Amino acid sequence: MTELRKRMIECLQLRGLSERTQEAYVRAVRQLAEHYHKSPDLITEAELRQYFLFLKNTKHYSRNTAGSPRGQPAWGACDDHRHLRPPLSI
Length: 90
Fold this sequence. Notes:
The chain is built from four helices and no strands. With 90 residues, the protein is mainly alpha-helical. The chain has one domain: Tyrosine recombinase, N-terminal domain (DNA polymerase, domain 1, Orthogonal Bundle). The termini are far apart.
């Protein structure tokens, strides 16, 4: 497990999210990283926006499915944004 993934899971645990929700967030970030073939911390805001458009327009995912249970990018779940990116206004 990478250090970034470990920190993300710890943040999700601190937020009190269920294990299934944690798994969904981690899966969403993994799929994003696989799409761009690079670490999530190297993905730009523009790439993230394009990815959400891809999910909506090509994969026909709803906003909630594309981001997270609340429609926010998965790495916006952590209040400590030194480790993960801040939420984006999409």
